[in-house]
Design goal:
With 671 residues, this protein is of the alpha/beta class. The protein is built from 28 helices and 16 strands. Helix 5 runs antiparallel to helix 7, helix 6 packs across helix 7 and helix 10 packs across helix 23.
C-alpha cells in the first residue's frame, strides 16, 4: 500500500519549492515528490539482497543460509551490486572528463567554434606537472599535448594513470602496495563489469578492492581531468556574486534553463545570449532579453564562473517548468528526469536534449557539436525565443537568495596568503590552534524520499556551530545557498566563535562553494595541499576532516564516496544503505557493510558508513574530528577560548608571559 501522502512542508524546507508543490496540487500535476509517495521501494533490492545478473534469477535472498541458483552468497551478491553501481558512477563522471579532453584538443587545433583558452596560467601549471614542456611554447601547443595525455588516460591498458602523482606521496605508496592504482580509466570500469558477470569473481573482499581501483580511476582520473579542462577553457573560478532559487526567473524575459552536467554547452549558451543579434531577436519577440538560469551541476558550473543564477537543485527541475515561465529547458547528461517531457506538455515549455548520449522520447533534439558550438547555441536560443509568444499564465515564487560561489582550490590558496605568499599555512594554523575544529565536505544529491534540502542544511548548520569549516559542491551547495549560508554577513551569526574569527579575518563565508559534483576533486586537492603544508600529518587520513552526502541518490555518489574513502577520508551517507541486508531475517547480512567501515578503515584509514539519523551523523562527524585532533597531538577543542576579536583581546594577551601567551593563542607552547 502507498504510504501516507506528505504535506508540502514535509516534502521540502524550501519555501519556493513548497509554493510550487501547492501549485502542482491545485492543477493536478504529479512530481517526483508525489511519485516517491506512490512508489513503495523494494526492501529486498534496496538492501542489496537481490541478484539479477543472469537469466537463472532474479534471486532474492531472504532466509538464513540461502544462496542464489548458482550458489552465490549474500555478501557476494551485495559486493557485486555495489561495484556495478560504482562502475556506472565512475563511467558517468569520467565520460564527462573524456568529452572535456576532446574539446580541449579541438580548441587547441582551432576546430571548436567560439571557444578560447581562458586560463593560460593554469594550463601551464598543469602541463608542467606532467612533464609537458611549456617554456617558449604557444598555449595551443601546450594544450594539444595536454589533451593528448588526458585522452590517453581513458584507453591506457598498462601502467598508471597520470593524475595519481597529485596525491600525497604516502597515499600513492599505499595504493601501489595494494595494487589499486588504476591502469586506465576505461579498463577498470570494464573489468568491474567482467568480474561481476555470472561465474566470475566470488570473493566479496576481492570484488571490493577492485571497486576501490575503479573509483580511483574516476576521482584521481576522469573527474580531475574534467575539472582541469573546464578551468583551462572557461576560467578557474574565483568568488563573485550570484543568486539562487526559482525567483531568479523573469516575467518579462525569455527564460532558458540549462540543466545537466557538462559546461561546454552551457558556457556557449551564456556567450550566445549576450550577442547583439540574440538580444535584438528577443526584443523583437516582445521580451526584454534572454534570462538564463541553471539547474543541478550545470547551474554550479555557470554560477561560479559567469554569475548566472541557479534556479535550484535536482528536485527543482520539475518545479521550474511548473512556473509556466520557462520557454526552454536545455539538457545534456545526468540527473535529467524523463518526467520533464510529460510535465512540459501541460505548459508551453520545450525540453531540448543536446547530447548524442541522451534522447528523451517526445523532446526536441538539437545535437551539440563543439565544431559549431556558437551557431548551435544561437539556434537553441532562437527556438526558445520563438516560444515566448506561447507563454500562458505564470506563477514565479518571489523567493531568491544571494550567494558567493567560486572557491576553487587555487583561490583558497590565494585568499589565505595573497599574491606573493599564497599558502595553506593560515588554514592549517587555525586548525592547529582550534579556531577551526575541523573541515567537513557536505556534498551530493537530493532524494525525494527525504525532506528536500533538510538533511543538507541541518548537518551544515550544526557543524558550523561547532566551528567546523564547511566546503560544498553539487546540489548540497545550492541547498545551503538558498538559506543564505554562502554569504558571510548572513551566515556568521550561525557559526562558532572561533570559525567566525577566521571568516571575518579572511573575509569569507563559513560555507565555501567549490563547484559541481566532478569538482569534488578540488576537495581532494585541498586536502593534499593541507598535507603538504605540514602540521596536520603526512597523509589525508590524519586530517580532522569528514565527508558527508546526506541526501544521496545516484551511482555517481557511491563512486565519489569510495574514492574519498580510498584517499583516507571518513565518509557518511544519509538515507538508506544499498548493502544493509535484513539483520532480523538473515544471519550475517551486514558482512559487506562492516567491511566498508571496519575493513576499509584498516586498509585505507578511511571508511564508508550509511547513517540515516542526521543527529547521529553529526555526532559521529564531531567525534571523528576530535579523535583525529587528539591523534595529531593538537589542542583540545575549547570554543570558549575564542570570540573576543580585536585590539582589546590583543592588549590582554600582551600582558601575559610568552609561554602563557602562546598557550592562549595556540593551545600549547610553540616549540
Amino acid at each position: 500500500m502507498p504510504k501516507e501522502k506528505r504535506s508540502p512542508e514535509q516534502y521540502s524546507i524550501d519555501p519556493a519549492a513548497q509554493e510550487m508543490l501547492i501549485r502542482a496540487e491545485e492543477i493536478g500535476i504529479g512530481t517526483a515528490f508525489t511519485r516517491a509517495d506512490n512508489m513503495v521501494p523494494c526492501n529486498i533490492g534496496g538492501a542489496g539482497m537481490c541478484c539479477k545478473l543472469c537469466g537463472m534469477g532474479p534471486c532474492r535472498l531472504t532466509k538464513d543460509g540461502q544462496t542464489g541458483v548458482c550458489g552465490a552468497t549474500l555478501d557476494t551478491i551485495q559486493a557485486r551490486n555495489l561495484i556495478r553501481a560504482i562502475a556506472a558512477g565512475s563511467a558517468a563522471h569520467s565520460d564527462h572528463g573524456r568529452d572535456m579532453a576532446f574539446t580541449l584538443k579541438a580548441v587547441a587545433n582551432g576546430e571548436a567554434e567560439g571557444y578560447i583558452i581562458r586560463d593560460v596560467a593554469k594550463l601551464r601549471v598543469v602541463a608542467a606537472r606532467y612533464g609537458i614542456p611549456v617554456d617558449g611554447r604557444a598555449p595551443e601547443e601546450i594544450a594539444n599535448d595536454l589533451a593528448d595525455l588526458y585522452i590517453a588516460q581513458f584507453g591506457q591498458q598498462k601502467g598508471e594513470i597520470a593524475p595519481i602523482i597529485r596525491a600525497p606521496e604516502k597515499r600513492q605508496k599505499l595504493w601501489k602496495e595494494l595494487k589499486v592504482v588504476p591502469r586506465g580509466i576505461d579498463r577498470e570500469v570494464v573489468e568491474a563489469l567482467h568480474r561481476t558477470h555470472m561465474g566470475d569473481d566470488q570473493d566479496p573482499e576481492h570484488i571490493l578492492q577492485h571497486a576501490v581501483r575503479t573509483s580511483l580511476a574516476d576521482g584521481w582520473g576522469g573527474s580531475m581531468i574534467a575539472t582541469d579542462v573546464a578551468d583551462i577553457l572557461f576560467g578557474t573560478p574565483a568568488p563573485l556574486l550570484g543568486q539562487a532559487n526559482l525567483g531568479v526567473l523573469k516575467q518579462d524575459m525569455v527564460n532558458v534553463v540549462v540543466h545537466g552536467h557538462e559546461p561546454t554547452l552551457s558556457e556557449m549558451i551564456v556567450a550566445a545570449s549576450q550577442t547583439p543579434e540574440i538580444i535584438e531577436y528577443a526584443r523583437a519577440a516582445g521580451a526584454k532579453g534572454v534570462n538564463l538560469a541553471g539547474i543541478c551541476c550545470t547551474a554550479n558550473e555557470i554560477l561560479m564562473r559567469q554569475g548566472i543564477p541557479a534556479a535550484g537543485n535536482f528536485l527543482q527541475q520539475e518545479l521550474a517548468i511548473l512556473t509556466g515561465a520557462v520557454e526552454a529547458m536545455v539538457v545534456d547528461v545526468q540527473c535529467i528526469m524523463q518526467a520533464l517531457v510529460g510535465l512540459a506538455e501541460n505548459f508551453h515549455t520545450k525540453v531540448i536534449t543536446t547530447s548524442p548520449k541522451v534522447k528523451i522520447k517526445g523532446a526536441t533534439h538539437i545535437e551539440f557539436d563543439e565544431r559549431h558550438a556558437l551557431t548551435i547555441a544561437k539556434q537553441i536560443l532562437r527556438v526558445a525565443i520563438d516560444n515566448y509568444q506561447n507563454r500562458g499564465a505564470t506563477h514565479i515564487p518571489d523567493v531568491r537568495e544571494s550567494l558567493i560561489p567560486g572557491f576553487s582550490h587555487e583561490y583558497i590558496n590565494y585568499m589565505l596568503g595573497g599574491s606573493y605568499r599564497a599558502s595553506f599555512r593560515p588554514l592549517n594554523d587555525a586548525i592547529v590552534a582550534g579556531r577551526i575544529r575541523g573541515v567537513a565536505a557536505i556534498v551530493g544529491c537530493n532524494n525525494p524520499r527525504s525532506t528536500h534540502d533538510y538533511l543538507h542544511t541541518k548537518v551544515t548548520r550544526e557543524l558550523l556551530r561547532q566551528d567546523v569549516l564547511v566546503v560544498q559542491t553539487g546540489c548540497g551547495a545550492i541547498a545551503s545557498a538558498k538559506l543564505g549560508l554562502l554569504l558571510g554577513e548572513a551566515g556568521l551569526d550561525q557559526v562558532g566563535l572561533g570559525l567566525r574569527e577566521v571568516c571575518e579575518t579572511i573575509g569569507i563565508p563559513p560555507v565555501l562553494h567549490m563547484g559541481s559534483c566532478v569538482d569534488n576533486t578540488r576537495i581532494l586537492t585541498v586536502l593534499t595541499q593541507m598535507v603538504e603544508e605540514g602540521g596536520l600529518g603526512d597523509d589525508i587520513d590524519q586530517i580532522p576532516a569528514v565527508g558527508l552526502a546526506p541526501e544521496w541518490m545516484s551511482e555517481k555518489a557511491l563512486a565519489i564516496g569510495t574514492y574519498c574513502v580510498a584517499s583516507g577520508a571518513y565518509v557518511m551517507f544519509g538515507g538508506s544503505s544499498p548493502v544493509s541486508g535484513m539483520p532480523d531475517k538473515v544471519e550475517d547480512s551486514d558482512i559487506v557493510a562492516r567491511y566498508l567501515s571496519e575493513g576499509w578503515e584498516k586498509i585505507y584509514g578511511g571508511k564508508l558508513e550509511f547513517v540515516a539519523d542526521p543527529d547521529e551523523m553529526i555526532r559521529r562527524a564531531l567525534a571523528h574530528i576530535d579523535h583525529k585532533r587528539a591523534a595529531l597531538g593538537l589542542a583540545e577543542y575549547k570554543p570558549e577560548r575564542f570570540g573576543r576579536s580585536g585590539d582589546d583581546r590583543m592588549r590582554q594577551l600582551e600582558q601575559l608571559p610568552l609561554v602563557e601567551r602562546q598557550q592562549a593563542l595556540y593551545g600549547s607552547p610553540v616549540k
